[in-house]
Specification:
This protein is mainly alpha-helical. 42% of the residues lie in helices and 0% in strands. The protein has two helices and no strands. The radius of gyration is 20 Å and the shape is elongated.
Length: 62
């Protein structure tokens, strides 16, 4: 699923809100866009690649 770039030209006082734009999109597309933003932010902020953290727990057996 990819994002499609759309450009609409309108006057400043006739600009539609971002909220109404995203409300008109299906939930799958909204979640996909949110996931893309999350990935880009994590890459920019933490220089982190996507993946699961590994947690190790050591249990002492007697």
């Amino acid at each position: 699923m990819g994002l499609i770039k759309v450009i609409n030209k309108c006057k400043m006082n006739e600009q539609p809100s971002d909220f109404s734009y995203w409300q008109s999109k299906p939930y799958e597309e909204r979640i996909g866009a949110l996931e893309q933003i999350r990935r880009e932010y994590n890459q920019w902020r933490y220089h982190a690649e996507q993946g699961l953290q590994r947690v190790y727990k050591i249990i002492k057996q007697t």
